[in-house]
């Protein structure tokens, strides 16, 4: 895949074009996704604005990041939203403490969470609303039915799913149009490869979470990454992001960070042109 193709946008849901390298807001909240990351919220506000100034058009957030903190920061930093900026948020999970959460997928819960996100984000319509987890105690048709009702009311433009398998995606698509999938996927963790392949066939966006491996890019893999990075005057993390962009045209990584320098480093990964030899080496690491 050439650099021009890597830099090309992707139409989420067929009608929301975004640049493929976005920004995730998980890095703006504290450990365990609890509370704010920075004592001074203006640091996070400035980072969000910097991301958009640098060309990011996809912001990935969730109501339980904080909880509420990340969505409030997005609105504080970016509202009124510039034309072409897509805000993707998630509902269906209730967080009660650091790394403590439970699934809440009853229709009335999903409606309440979606409407709360609309208020926090100061918007009438959410470009992409993703079900953070399927609730095993609630029929899928009831959960997606609630989102379809919200879509018909104009409160959701497109529906997405988080952490699902290929069979669940196929079932879901029989109930509602699914514009995106958000599963764990990175250079070393490709357990969701079958889901990615299904997304490729159907033109569905795939937002990989933990795109940088959450600290796992070490050992033999780290040695290979370091060698390739040296050839491109890049960092191992940049190579891991560049590999995602080269690996599939439907992959839309949204790495998060609380650091302006790290943000710039991540965004620069979109301009790295990996060779066929680089890709062959990287493909063997999973």
From TrEMBL:
GO cellular component term, pick one: cytoplasm
GO MF terms held by the record: oxidoreductase activity
Keyword Plastid: no
InterPro entries noted in UniProt: AKR (IPR020471), Aldo-Keto_reductase (IPR050791), NAD(P)_OxRdtase_dom_sf (IPR036812), NADP_OxRdtase_dom (IPR023210)
Record keywords: Oxidoreductase
Domain named NADP-dependent oxidoreductase: residues: 20-285
Name this polypeptide is given: Oxidoreductase
Biological classification of the source: Bacteria, Bacillati, Actinomycetota, Actinomycetes, Kitasatosporales
């Amino acid at each position: 895949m050439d650099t021009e193709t890597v830099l090309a946008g992707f139409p989420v849901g067929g009608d929301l074009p975004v640049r493929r390298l976005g920004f995730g807001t998980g890095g703006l909240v504290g450990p365990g996704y609890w509370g704010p990351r920075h004592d001074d919220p203006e640091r996070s506000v400035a980072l969000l604005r910097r991301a958009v100034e640098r060309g990011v058009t996809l912001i990935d957030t969730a109501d339980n990041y904080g909880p509420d903190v990340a969505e409030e920061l997005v609105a504080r930093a970016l509202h009124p939203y510039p034309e072409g900026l897509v805000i993707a948020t998630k509902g269906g999970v209730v967080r009660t403490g650091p790394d403590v959460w439970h699934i809440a997928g009853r229709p009335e819960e999903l409606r309440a969470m979606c409407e709360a996100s609309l208020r926090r984000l100061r918007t009438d319509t959410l470009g992409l609303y993703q079900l953070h987890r399927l609730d095993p105690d609630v029929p899928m048709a009831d959960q997606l039915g609630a989102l379809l009702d919200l879509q018909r009311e104009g409160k959701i433009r497109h529906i997405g799913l988080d952490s699902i398998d290929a069979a669940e995606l196929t079932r879901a698509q029989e109930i509602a149009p699914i514009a995106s999938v958000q599963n764990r996927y990175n250079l070393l963790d490709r357990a969701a490869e079958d889901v990615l392949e299904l997304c490729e066939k159907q033109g569905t966006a795939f937002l990989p979470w933990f795109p940088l491996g959450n600290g796992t890019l070490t050992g033999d893999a780290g040695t290979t990454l370091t060698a390739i990075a040296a050839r491109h005057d890049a960092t191992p993390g940049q190579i891991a992001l560049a590999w995602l962009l080269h690996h599939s045209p439907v992959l839309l990584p949204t790495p998060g960070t609380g650091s302006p320098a790290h943000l710039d480093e991540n965004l620069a990964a979109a301009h790295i042109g990996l060779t066929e030899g680089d890709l062959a080496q990287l493909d063997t690491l999973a």
